[in-house]
Structures are given as C-alpha cells and as structure tokens.
Amino acid sequence: RRPSAMEADYETVAALRTELEYLSARRILKPDKPGGTLDAAQYGLDDSARKIRCKTAGAEKVLVFGKQAVLGEVMYGKIEGSPEIYVLAADVEKSFIKTPEDFRNRVVLAFDPEQILSLSVKNPAGDFDVSFLGNGWGWKTPLKSRHVDQDAATGMALELRHLKFKKYLGVQDGDAPAWQTPLAKISVSLKGEAAPRVLLVGPKLPD
After folding, report:
1. Which of 44, 65, 79, 101 has its CA 20 to 30 A from that of 196?
2. For the whole model, what pTM was predicted?
3. Is the CB of residue 113 less than 8 Å from the CB of residue 157?
4. The dihedral of CA 198, 201, 202, 207: what is its sign?
5. Taken in order 17, 109, 193, 143, is the CA torsion positive or negative?
C-alpha cells in the first residue's frame, strides 16, 4: 500500500541517500561459470525479500536484502537482475527500516524568515506583539515607547522556523485532548498571506 501524500523530511531522506551511496560489501559471491546464477533462495533473496527501489534520471536499481549468515555477523544482499550476491554487515539493514511516518516533515510552522511581518504571543506570563519594520523589530503592543531586543526577536523567529514535532498523535474529530485548551498562542504573519499561521501550545504531556 502506498503511503498518503505528505511533505517529506529532507534530513531523513538525505541520510538514507547517504547510506545507500556509501553502502559497501565485505565480500562478493559470483557464479562459478560465466553466465551462471547463484541460488537466490538459499541466501534469502527470493521474491519475499525486503527491497529498496532507487530511481535516478536514467535508471532504476533495486537493492534486495536477504537473510543473515549462520556464522559471522553478516547478511546477504544483491542488486535485482545481477548474478552477484553481496556479503554485508549484519546491521546494515537497520538504517533502512522506516515507516511512512518516519519520512514525514516534522517542521511545525514552515516559513521563510525573510517574509515575516509580525510575531504575536499570548501566554500566562503576558502578551506581546512585535513587527518587523524592514530594518529591525518594533513593538506593536504593549510597550511602543521601548526598544525591542533585536537578537531575542530574531532568535524567536528562527526557533519557530525550525521547530519540529516529535510525534504526530493523529487525533480524530470529536476527541478532547488535554491540550485543546491551550496555555499559549503564537501567531506568525507573513507577506502575501491573508491570515496568520497560529501555533497553540498545550501543557506538557505525561511520559
């Protein structure tokens, strides 16, 4: 079954690509005679084996993982369509055991910091609202007469830009989780967007 459409996490995909790029065999098993074949089922490389399909602009290759060897910390693998069988490190497959959720982009408020117009925060410690004026940050509320700490405001914008969630709970309509009444509300207004992007922050979840 194909996973549902969602934006992929760049770092996860890049790490997987790097693992594939530098994957190396400890040993290569070849048929005894030119044009011959090895018994793929003997090495766990039959149709039921785990596979990774890699597509490039000009070709497609399928990496097949087989079973672990009885002796030695190794497992077998091959490129589909090739007669050779590779002896790989036994733990090499762990890097590729992923679920669709592992590839999900975990950035909560993805935005370009250059497009930011204002930041608004409402929380028990007090509310404030700052705008980016082109050459720096300025107060909208509550202290228009005082200077904004530029580093603090920029730091908050960057933290929001890179904020990632750890786990997606997948709450269904009608559920009433504890965080439905937020402790804080953070709004980010961006150029070209009519409505701000809003992050509701709830209480800390139990372990």
Report:
1. 101
2. 0.61
3. yes
4. positive
5. negative
Q: For residue range 104-142, list pLDDT tens digits in order.
A: 888 888 888 889 999 999 888 888 889 988 788 888 866
Closest alpha carbon to 189 in 105, 121, 108: 121
Structure tokens that stand for 11 in this block = 């770092």
Phi and psi at 161, nearest 5°, equal -60, -35
Count how many Cα atoms sit within 13 Å of the Cα of residue 191 in the half-sphere of its side chain: 8
Distance CA 23, CA 188 (A): 43
Dihedral angle of Cα 136, 138, 140, 144, to the nearest 10 degrees: -170
Nearest to 11 by CA among 124, 110, 103, 116: 103
Q: Is 10 helix (H, G, I), strand (E, B) or coil?
A: helix
DSSP symbol at 206 = P
How far, in Å, are 67, 109, 189 from residue 195 at the CA level? Answer: 54, 14, 7
Q: Give the integer Cα–Cα distance in Å for 44 and 65.
A: 8
Q: At 24, which helix (H) or strand (E)?
A: none
pLDDT, tens digit, 9 for 90 and up, residues 7-32: 788 888 888 889 988 999 999 999 88
Handedness of CA 98, 101, 105, 107 (dihedral sign): negative
